[in-house]
């Protein structure tokens, strides 16, 4: 095969040692450690060999520091998915792996993974950490419910959310020593649908000292976790403010949507309507049905303005694992399931698609969801709608155009013209006459 990258290098990343191949000879393979000093020695060695481009496999998170060091040194670094560097069966060693990667890269058979810029990577760290804390929060709330249930305090029956305003007031009063059910029920907010008497009945328990101790620890953990989530949001807002300090777009010009003002337990306490409008150059993502604060946060922190690195909407959808992974053998399609992945943006878009499926309003996206759900089921409809959302977002951010939902009347008119042309083609191909159509056979 023709060599496309003559000055290519392959790196087999490991937890304790990195193997570097600058050619296919045994003397052209060298190993380096994982410390910062070893990274600097690797940079000097690669420059002495005249290397310009490097390919490495994404192994766990061991590649991150080495990737940053090599990129900072001026090399063109390719981060390659593991399924592209699978070797043939036989003996497998680190030396053979790095040589195999080097050869594949030299003949141009490896494609680079999407790596956001430093600004987006910084935002991504805080966003993903916030998402982890939210997942931990769910586990803590379930533990608090079990602690209350063990004392026969069925607060979750009387209140929809035990960590809401009423629930937290009652739990804090219990931990402060209050045991009177009527006094505890009186702390509930006036908006609670259940009566004070029913709430008081749910708070008649056995007040076990051991479970009270565990309840206090879990509730303190819940409060601390809320503070951690807030700290992550503060850092995200700080970075966005510094980034948009020189923006020429006035945040006051951002359209205001009621859905973005609705209260939600996991909704970030940041005005993303203004920030996203500035960040994306006047594009209003909230105009899309179902898109909320968390969705826009995921778009900003996962791809940001680097979405232009994807050459098409199809490539962007493929990155999010929302495209069918079609496998054909013998002229037959043996599988077309989407790839598995845990991309936060993909999960956010699927969440929006699920919301769209439950909307009562009649829009293009809701009609599309119901059509796919009727044919293939709700699970496939969520994936298909998430794919459509990814295409819409890509076109909006790359072309700087507003959201233009399809109008039903225009769509029906286009469909009618299409069917009429099909009928005309059939009539011409069979040499039918008007009399034949009027009188049948």
Written overview of the protein:
The chain folds into four domains: 8-106, Nucleotidyltransferase, domain 5, CATH 3.30.420; 119-241; 252-399, no CATH class; 408-439. It has helices spanning 36-48, 63-72, 94-106, 118-150, 155-158, 165-176, 181-185, 196-202, 209-243, 258-261, 272-279, 293-302, 313-319, 344-358, 364-376, 378-399, 408-429, 434-439; strands spanning 8-12, 18-21, 29-32, 53-57, 76-80, 327-329, 332-335. α13 packs across α16. It is globular. The chain contains 18 helices and seven strands. The longest helix is centred in the middle third of the chain and has 35 residues, at 209-243. With 441 residues, it is of the alpha/beta class.
Please outline the helices and strands.
Layout: E1 8-12, E2 18-21, E3 29-32, H1 36-48, E4 53-57, H2 63-72, E5 76-80, H3 94-106, H4 118-150, H5 155-158, H6 165-176, H7 181-185, H8 196-202, H9 209-243, H10 258-261, H11 272-279, H12 293-302, H13 313-319, E6 327-329, E7 332-335, H14 344-358, H15 364-376, H16 378-399, H17 408-429, H18 434-439
Helix pairs in contact: 4-9, 4-12, 11-12, 12-14, 13-16, 14-15, 14-16, 15-16
């Amino acid at each position: 095969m023709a060599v496309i990258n003559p000055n290519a290098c392959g790196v087999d990343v490991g937890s304790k040692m990195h193997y570097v191949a600058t050619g296919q000879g045994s003397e052209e393979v060298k190993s380096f450690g994982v410390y910062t000093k070893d990274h600097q020695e690797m940079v000097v060695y690669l420059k002495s060999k005249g290397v310009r481009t490097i390919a490495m496999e994404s192994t766990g998170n061991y590649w991150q520091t080495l990737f940053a060091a090599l990129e900072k040194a001026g090399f063109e670094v390719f981060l390659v998915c593991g399924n592209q560097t699978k070797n043939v069966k036989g003996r497998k060693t680190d030396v053979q792996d790095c040589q195999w990667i080097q050869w594949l890269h030299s003949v141009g058979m490896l494609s680079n993974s999407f790596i956001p810029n430093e600004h987006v990577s910084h935002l991504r760290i805080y966003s993903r950490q916030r998402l982890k804390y939210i997942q931990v929060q769910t586990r803590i709330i379930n533990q608090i419910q079990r602690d209350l249930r063990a004392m026969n305090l069925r607060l979750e029956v009387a209140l929809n959310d035990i960590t809401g305003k009423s629930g937290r007031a009652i739990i804090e009063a219990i931990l402060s020593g209050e045991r009177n059910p009527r006094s505890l029920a009186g702390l509930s907010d006036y908006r609670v649908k259940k009566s004070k008497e029913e709430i008081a009945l749910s708070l008649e328990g056995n007040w076990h000292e051991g479970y009270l101790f565990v309840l206090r620890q879990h509730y303190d953990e819940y409060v601390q976790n809320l503070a951690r989530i807030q700290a992550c949001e503060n850092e995200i807002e700080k970075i966005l403010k510094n980034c948009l300090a020189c923006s020429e777009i006035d945040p006051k010009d951002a359209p205001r949507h009621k859905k973005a003002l609705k209260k939600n337990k996991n909704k970030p306490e940041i005005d993303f309507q203004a920030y996203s409008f500035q960040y994306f150059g006047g594009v209003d993502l909230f105009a899309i049905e179902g898109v909320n604060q968390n969705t826009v946060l995921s778009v900003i922190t996962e791809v940001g303005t680097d979405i232009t690195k994807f050459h098409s909407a199809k490539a962007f959808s493929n990155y999010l694992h929302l495209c069918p992974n079609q496998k054909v053998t013998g002229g037959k399609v043996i599988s077309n399931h989407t790839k598995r992945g845990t991309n936060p943006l993909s999960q956010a878009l699927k969440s929006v698609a699920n919301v769209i499926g439950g909307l009562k309003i009649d829009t293009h996206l809701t009609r599309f969801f119901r059509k796919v759900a009727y044919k293939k089921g709700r699970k496939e409809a969520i994936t298909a709608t998430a794919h459509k959302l990814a295409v819409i977002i890509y076109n909006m951010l790359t072309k700087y155009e507003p959201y233009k939902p399809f109008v039903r009347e225009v769509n029906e008119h286009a469909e009618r013209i299409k069917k009429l042309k099909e009928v005309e083609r059939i009539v011409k191909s069979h040499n039918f006459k008007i009399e034949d159509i009027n009188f049948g056979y």
